[in-house]
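From the shared-data thread, chain only:
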Amino acid sequence: MARTAGTKKADTHERIVRAAAKVIRRDGYAGTSVADVMQDAGLTHGGFYAHFASREDMLAEALDLAASESVESLIGSTVVRAAKEHIHPLEALVDSYLSDRHLHATETGCTLAALGSETRRQPAKIRKVAATRIKELAALVGQQSAGRAHAPEALATLSTLVGALLIARIVDDPELAREVRDSAARLVLGTTTR
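Structure, as tokens:
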């Protein structure tokens, strides 16, 4: 079956967005150039404007995809681990979020921990995407905490997890990075599941 021009364009657009999603988590917004994204996507710089009106549009789509992937991955790992190990879903979520694997997965991990402080300096379109995805992640945390999707505790838990991962990524001492994550896990799980 022959591919249509529209399908090829949609596939190329998705390839660009996927490349941008990795680059923004790795290099931040300021470090993400159109040229770098297009190169990572295996395309020429000249084709960019056939897909996006601006760099800002690309970054907004990339953030949305990256955040969506992060949430889906967290849901998957939480459900599997909770069922397999017969543990509370919040415990599985906390363990997954604060894991060594997630600590080192900056290109595929949580966008809040990778881009949080930079996002406030971005245009409204990008901040709106971030706010939508933060609400979604807080709802997920709330659902794992006995169904309180909009409870202040869910936002506090999310803030604790993101802050711990961010700090653990900043420090150059692996023991301190572990203690930051362990302390956050104890705080969250000690006050919400016991």
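The two ends are 57 Å apart (CA to CA).
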